[in-house]
Design a protein that fits this description.
The protein is of the alpha/beta class. It has six helices and seven strands, in the order ααββββαβαααββ. The protein has a seven-stranded mixed β-sheet with strand order 3-2-1-4-5-7-6. α4 packs antiparallel against α5. The radius of gyration is 18 Å and the shape is globular. The termini are far apart.
């Protein structure tokens, strides 16, 4: 029996009653993103099985690395995301990004990540930052985008914000979306992200903006995320 079929049989035993693991649209009070015991067991089972059947070391097929690719798999990048997360013709490299990346030191010319770090607990996120620095070549850039805590604070305090914030009925609802919705586990502002980059292997870190940065190959930001995003670039 193929590993994928074995996995599906095992996971079917631990799914929650309704089997719903995809996030629905923003809706205050939605319970879809709650980390229930069945959902946690499902996630950790995928992680354990993935680690058992995946190679511990890989040879990069591309010069650039995207971490947390989701469905936005970029053709010039080695796209890496969680095991068995997405289906389709354009496969991604399955990996538990809480663990060391499966590449040798100094493997990539640059790295990109968009709205991934906030889905990790701070300790795991710092481990990932150190791993990204390790697999980058000297002088290479890591372009990292996350929801910007500062933009949410300004909206909460009544300051001017992008029109997309109008989806929230109040500042409190906006903070729920940032801190508890979408399986978010950490929040970031420019100062914290730069501080952690510098503490975990990068020689320089600075804020950038949508569509602008040090390496043109890494300017692949999704426009529909720009309204809430912070962009920080770390150079090894």
């Amino acid at each position: 029996m193929k590993p994928a079929r074995i996995l599906n049989r095992i996971l079917s035993l631990i799914r929650s009653g309704n089997g719903e693991f995809w996030l629905e649209q923003h809706q205050f009070g939605s319970r879809v993103a709650e980390l229930t015991l069945p959902r946690h067991a499902y996630f950790e089972a995928r992680a354990w099985i993935g680690r058992m059947i995946s190679p511990k070391r890989r040879r990069p097929k591309q010069a650039l690395l995207q971490i947390g690719s989701g469905l936005n798999r970029l053709p010039q990048f080695e796209n890496i995301d969680f095991y068995f997360a997405y289906r389709g013709e354009d496969r991604h490299v399955g990996h538990d990004i809480r663990r060391p990346l499966p590449y040798d030191d100094n493997s990539f010319d640059g790295a990109f990540s968009e709205h991934t770090l906030e889905h990790m607990y701070p300790a795991d996120a710092m481990t990932l930052l150190a791993e990204v620095a390790r697999v980058l070549k000297p002088g290479a850039v890591f372009r990292c985008s996350v929801p910007d805590l500062g933009k949410y604070v300004r909206f909460y305090e009544g300051g001017t914000s992008s029109g997309e914030f109008a989806m929230f009925g109040s500042g409190c609802e906006a903070f729920w979306n940032l801190t508890q919705n979408h399986l978010h586990r950490s929040v970031w502002d420019g100062t914290m992200l730069k501080t952690q980059m510098l503490a975990h292997g990068f020689s320089h870190a600075e804020e950038a903006s949508f569509g602008q940065g040090q390496d043109p190959r890494l300017i692949v930001d999704l426009e529909h995320r720009a309204w809430e995003s912070l962009y920080v670039e770390g150079r090894k």
